[in-house]
Amino acid sequence: MGAGATPVGFPQPRRRQCHEALWGPHTCAVGIHILLEEIDRPYETEKLDVNGGDTHRLPFIGINPKGKVPTLVREDGSVLTEFSAIATWLARTNPQTGLLPDDLELEARAVETMAYVGGTIHGQGYARVFVPQMFARQDVAGEGRAWAGIRQATGARDGRNGFRAPEPATRPA
Predict the structure, then answer these.
(1) Helical packing angle, 104-116 and 83-93, nearest 10°
(2) pLDDT for position 109
(3) Per the count of CB atoms within 10 A, which of 41, 64, 99, 103 is most buried?
(4) How far from 26 is each of 40, 55, 69, 91, 156, CA to CA, in Å?
(5) 67-71, 82-86, 138-142: which range is least confident on average?
(6) Is 19-97 CATH 3.40.30.10?
(7) Alpha carbon distance 46, 57 (integer Å)
(8) What pTM does this model have?
């Protein structure tokens, strides 16, 4: 296959009237949707059933072989993936919004923070919600049972069913 050729089954890039954001509910892709609102330019969205596997089937996998959202199909038909890359590109191509500072050092710090939130807080935070056993401290006997008791007593739920903050626990006197 020659350079620039598109594999069979993959969509051909085509020019668009506006950007199209491919996203899924309950994912960080919602943040890109918010940024598209902030820049106040026309855009389209396609909501995907991420849990149902839409990101691992054609046509999506042909647009983004990583099989992840967010994915932005730009006006020229090219595709941009990964939250930090899309957010930075949207901010830099729409400087009137002030989404990124003009100062290079401040911009670097803003991108650093965005990468930390996306790569560390988001990833570890959701992993701790969905697979807390992976993060349970092994050196404290019964800690997992204690947290289960707190969740049961306060009615706190996990991320699969929504969130409700537990009431503050009081220490015994």
Answers:
(1) 150
(2) 92
(3) 64
(4) 23, 14, 11, 23, 18
(5) 138-142
(6) yes
(7) 15
(8) 0.66
